[in-house]
Hints:
mainly alpha
Amino acid sequence: MDEKPDLSATGAIKKYAPGMAWLLPFRDYLTPSALWTAIAALAVAIAYVVNAQHDLHRHQDSIADLQQGRAQDRELLQKIDMQLAVMNSRLGDIALEVEHQREWRERVEEVAEAPPHARRRER
């Protein structure tokens, strides 16, 4: 009959399962329930890390969107500032024109209020 090899010996584990030799110190503690518990804990840890990475990427996208919105707001504020400077310049021009018209009107009123002058006779 075909006998299964005894895997309890160190040499047999190294021969039939070379990647599992590091488990030799734990073979007394590796019961099926402990193994499934370890697998479940590893699955929960992996799910936590994947979820955290997903949240991190989502937050990075959100931050990028907010920064883009801030850039648009900054451009709008610069545009408003430039238009305000133009309006202030126009108001200054209007005030200067009003001052010129006031001076002209005062000169006209002075001439109108002055006594009549004798006309010069033409020769």
